[in-house]
């Protein structure tokens, strides 16, 4: 619906309170951080065991990181979708039709802090939007640090092998 707020009508109408909004934010962020940690930990343990050239390990690390970020974005998308379905947490206005794909699109633009501005959150759901941007910034930075350290490790070992 263009220009109008969209929230799903549900038989399970809740009157969200500040503690419930904070609880949802904490749970979603904690899950995103846990997912990210597990992806990075698994890559740290699996990449060195692979019998591949170091450059391919780095490429796999990049693809693994992108997968981690996509899973985290979809986690936030499901949270938005659930908050809309439960009702009372707010709405989105702009070019938003209430679909899960629109929630995912909004989540991708929020997580990456791209923010096109074609969809706007209203009321309580705005807080998850803000915390998603902060979480995305931190997790993307964490990934950049991880990949930098991995490249340093492999390039350092390549340099010592060549000597």
From TrEMBL:
A GO BP annotation: monoatomic ion transmembrane transport
Keyword list, A-Z: Ion channel, Ion transport, Membrane, Transmembrane, Transmembrane helix, Transport
SUPFAM superfamilies: Voltage-gated potassium channels
Transmembrane segments: 20-37, 58-81, 127-149
Ranges where the Potassium channel domain occurs: 71-146
InterPro entries reported for this sequence: K_chnl_dom
Pfam family, one: Ion_trans_2
Domain of life according to the entry: Bacteria
Keyword Glycosyltransferase: no
Protein name: K+ channel inward rectifier protein
Organism: Salinisphaera shabanensis E1L3A
